[in-house]
Amino acid sequence: MKDPSNANPELIEEISALKKRIKELEESESSCKKSEKALQKAEKMLHVILDTIPAMIWQKDLDGRYLQVNNAYCRTVGLPEEAILQKTDYDIHPKEIADKYVSHDMKVLTSGKSEFGIEEYHRKPSGDYGWSVTDKLACIDDQGNITGTIGFALDITDQKHTEKALKESEEKYRNIFENSIEGIFRSTPEGCFVSANPAAARMLGYDSPEELISTIKDMGFQLYANPEDRDSLFDSLKKYGFIKNFEVQCYHKNGSIIWGILNVHLVQNDQGNIVYIEGTCQDITGRKQAEEELNKYRNHLEQLVEARTDQLKSSENKYRTLFETSNDSIFLMRSDTIIDCNPKTLELFRRTRGQIIGQTPYSLSPPIQPDGSDSRKKVMKKINSAASGTPQHFEWQHLRSDGTNFDTEINLCVIKVGQEKILYGVIRDISNRKQAEKALKQKENELRAKAEALEEYNTALRVLLHQREEDKKDLEDRVASNVKRLVIPYIEKMKKNHPDPQQLSNLNILEANLNEIVSPFLHTIRQLNLTPRETQIAALIKDGKTTKEIVKIIGVATSSIDSYRNNIRSKLGLKNKKVNLQMYLQSLT
């Protein structure tokens, strides 16, 4: 074997260099293995991070095929990773959604510029649609070529719902703010309006909230009728943070003063500094005026009540006096039990108060009434009728403590004492009246018997009078017959013997008077209360004598005859009537 020291130095150098190179390669290989392990670890860590973050992340190639997706994306579309990779948006999403996704991808691929804050909607596994905000970037290789797109998206469905609810709430609040009948406002601590609703402007007389805000720059002096009221309000707000039902007088735009009621609270920032004062206001001028009027009426009513109380006290004393001094028995009952009575009741029943109070009317009565009815049943019927609102008036027999009965007259009705209905009764002793009625009845019976006896006497008397009238008529008929038969013919003979005028006149008068005596007319005419001369002239008028003939027969003046005529017409009821006196007198025959 050759000695190595004798070998070619160049060869030895090459071998040494080769060993060094091998060692370097071995070290490089070891380093590469370490780097590979580190890279694998980093990739694994990256996948863990990508799969755990809530944002959706994906990568697509130039044809729109998915190369990578994380778990958030898989959950959102409801598909496993293997069902998504190498698929396009048209394979996963509805066409109308896929069209929008592809449109944004093409913008990025064409321009090479990223798209940020794209709001897109997607369909969830449940079939509902959700919203996401997306950032899309171009994927560029080492040579600067665009190889696809990378996307990052965050599901903002809940945020969208929250925004929608917030918007609806804001609209609702705005409607309430604008249409509230109460004034709503916000002001600065210095006293300037920041905002106000129409009701607040109307309350203070302004045409719009804008006019109110632009006009009022210092509430303490421009709005508050008493500036110290705002100082008091502000001090209370700083102390308590809120104040309710604070009544204050304010200036209206027209210069008048109105009453308002405030409910306000402080709005503070995180540092505790006052930012705003917010609250509501309401016009209570009408209420205040009503309260003022009410106070007037209340005072007046109190005066009336006081006066009425005095009247009632006076009336109570008066009625108590009447109750105590009444000559009739007065009692009060609750149901059928006596609860009070006056002194006359004790006197009438000859009992003590303790023997009356607590008793029933039928216990103070005989068992049977004079008409045969049961006292208890009858009086309960009266009590029930009175309690139902029908006043009762009836006669009753009571019982004294000594066992004697006495007759009474009772009035029973219901009265209201406070809120309770009480039966009020008045008892009057009618024993004397009953005795008088009994005596009167006896007298009536006696008088009836006497009247019957007198009627018998009157009957006999009427028979006698009738007989007397018949005898009188028979006598008159005989007298008339005798005059006509025994006297009148002789007068006619004397008139035929040619007497002188005076004798003839006398004979005519005699004949006329005799005819009148026996005439029925005379009996009728006497009933008219005529004087003898008026009776004589009435007879001549009936026989057809003229005034001149009557003057010649009687021998008086014509005016006297006319006066007699007027008197006769007046007594006959013919004055101022167009009735012939002769014919009327003839009708009386």
Brief sketch in words of this structure:
With 589 residues, this protein is of the alpha+beta class. Helix content is 54%, strand content 21%.
Overall description:
The protein has 589 residues and is of the alpha+beta class. The protein has four domains: 44-163, PAS domain (Beta-Lactamase); 180-283, 2-Layer Sandwich (Beta-Lactamase); 328-428, Beta-Lactamase (2-Layer Sandwich); 481-587, no CATH class. It is 54% helix and 21% strand. The protein has 20 helices and 15 strands. The protein has helices at 9-52, 71-77, 89-92, 95-111, 157-179, 198-203, 209-215, 219-222, 227-240, 285-325, 343-349, 353-356, 375-387, 431-496, 501-517, 520-525, 532-542, 547-554, 558-571, 581-587; strands spanning 56-61, 66-69, 115-123, 129-140, 146-155, 183-187, 193-196, 242-251, 257-268, 274-283, 329-334, 337-341, 392-399, 405-417, 420-429. It has a five-stranded antiparallel β-sheet with strand order 2-1-5-4-3, with helices on both faces. It is elongated. The mean pLDDT is 84.
